[in-house]
Specification:
The protein is an alpha/beta fold. The strands form three sheets. It has a six-stranded parallel beta sheet, with helices on both faces. Strand 10 and strand 11 form a beta hairpin. Helix 1 packs across helix 8 and helix 8 crosses helix 9.
Length: 396
Amino acid sequence: MTPSILSGIRIADMTTVVFGPYCTQTLADLGADVVKIEPEGGDVARNIGKSANTPFMGGLHLRMNRGKRSVTWDLKTEVGKEAMSKLLASSDVFIHNVRPEAIERAGFGYEAVRKLRPDIIYVHCTGYDSRGDYAGRPAYDDIIQALSGVASLLPMADGNPAPRFFPMTMADKVSGLHAVYAVLAAVIHRLRTGEGQHVEVPMMEAVASFTTVDHLYEKTFIPPIGPSGYTRQLDPARQPMRTKDGYIAVAPYQDGRWRRFFELVGRPEIFEEPGLTDVQLRRENADRLYRHMATELPAKTTAEWVKIFAEIDIPASKINTIDDLLEDPQLKASGLFVERDHPTEGRYVEVRPPVQFSAMPSPVLAHAALPGEHSEEVARELGVDINRQPPTANSQ
């Protein structure tokens, strides 16, 4: 059988919540052997959402930790430190989100780990670049959305002055994907040179970079030739529009598509209005085209409009809820959602990796583990008796 992409790569994973675990889940999906080092009660994210049968097995944990082995060694004990040291010596990558001073106190800072494995790829998932003024501060998704400009975008788009967070762990997941490519790049570098390295993946910089791809806009130039904020994305008219029985998303964008729509509804004269008479003006005043369109859409149902738009080659869709995704025909056909039986939690929905490779198979991964489920197994592989008792004061 053709090996998976990261077969033979071992990753020691001491990350918690979403940022780091989302990264290592993706690496496990690619075939890496991920050993998740957890405190005795497990990663705090295990308790986000109810568990079906067993404590510490919430839905978020099941979603982000398939294929990983869990160990709960006590790193304050001699045997726990021995197991951890041997794990790091046998690992290609060590990824953690522990604050620098704490990981140094534990004895697993970069220089200490390099002595165990000189070519280690040592990845620190952190809130802020260590060269910046915020270095060392705690970071959570809300804080990073606030600092990176994300929370300011919705007010720019809809006129409601109150900053708001996007209702998902956006900063964590964006940062997690940055960590994935950082790990892969470092692995490629080591394959070419034999050299390991220290890699820092800071949330604030990752999300600020992500946000400014489009929203730095006309402030890209020095001096600026206009304001920041991608106008089409921030146009308050660019929202799902009401139909006879609900809402629809429509993306005409190209000038010919706008023309086809207004000819269809019998209003070609719109293109004779001041400000809409040529292509450049229509781009600058697209909000007016959206508003004209919005007055026509309540005449038909969402399904009727979706059919009509398909016939005249205008991208359009109904508005799916999260629940709708499970029944969406596209996602059913592509097999994104599969049902599996967890050994303790019963039947559950698993979300498969969205990327498909023709030459390399995606492995069928083990289920998300119970806390410490593999503590003894991994220790045995490393030649450590994790259950041995420390010598007593009377033993000689």
